[in-house]
# Entry
Amino acid sequence: MAVHPVFPRLACWLLACWLLACGFPGTCMALQTGPPTLENLLNPKSEDLNKDEPIPFENPRAKPVAPPRVDRPRDAPPRALPPAAPAKRLAVPDEAAVAEALELIHEAYEEAIQSASANPDAAIRTFRDAANKTTDAGRKYALLLLAERLALEAHATSRALDILAQRAALFDIDALADRHNLLTGVARTDDGRPDALLFEQVVETAELAVAADRFDLADAAADLAEATAKAIDKDMKIRAAESRRKREQPPASVAAKLLSEATSLQKKVRERRRQAFEYAAARDTLTAAPDDAQAAETVGRYLCFVKRDWTAGLPVLARGSDESLRNLAVQEVALAKETAVDPTTLLKLANEWWKVADTTDALPPPQAEAVKAHAAGIYHDIAGKLTDPIDATLARKRSNSPDLPPPPTVNAAAPSVTPSLPTLDSVLQSNGL
# Structure
């Protein structure tokens, strides 16, 4: 076989890469016609693939019937991205280092790679274990990439997301964008059936993007959720027609529910983008006019009711224009400065927040839910210290914590210590106001 004349010294590497691809399920890669970049090693061009085999991540339409699987790894429930590691993450190795590591891995684990078609779970476990043990950043990154690719080839999307989360915990990558790209590729594969689990994973990605204020990415994920729901709807209609031809009971369809959820998600993303824009404008107004009550209320509402950052939002809300919200915020900020607060005082505060959530028409349902969640936190902290059985039972019910210990006697009641909140000036300074 001829080797590209521009890269004679990489002939053996390319041959090893070819052997690897022939061992992957569902692919058959010819000798690379381009340089051995990471993209070429992990994602061969469509013209280099056997046209009779499915091409991962290329076909935008999914088949209605999935091919039979053999010894596929169990697809675990979706897992959210992990929180940022306390230690500094590693820089992503350069492409040359990863490509070199891939060549060595292909040679060292040739048998595991060749057997991956029949038992991908073992190969995935081998690569992840090796990634945990090696101290070389390039090899660690390459091993995780290969494990992720094997999981995708085995149609174990949740496993691939879990490996991506592992890679994101170790390396400084854009985990959210990579997650979206991975799911986009899965949705466009030629040999899979769209399902509710994939839909949930896409929705989770959109929710994570909204929480991170990455609205362009959230929009793209919400659109992907809608496309996935439509693909499920089409698949279910085909299956129902087939069942009727066979005089069988057609399967129950969840497509209508998923389409409704996708539409609601798109509306939520648009609304959150609007709120973030108004918050940024109000924050700029406070910079120029710190006494602007309307701007303070907008900033305080956004931080407390949307971002649920009550520590930063309460001091600002305490200077807002809405009298009922301002009074409660002022009261809670004052209580936070005290070293000991009677539980019944905190109970009254929680009751007032709960009442605001139930009676304030200006709060849309998501914000009212945030207010009740804040009140529930107060109820949870004091439920075990309340002596009146009605108060204690109500606090347990509203905090959704029926397993809290029973209230103590009157004499055994201990004072509550609430951590102090930052001052308004410190909050504004920390937010660049």
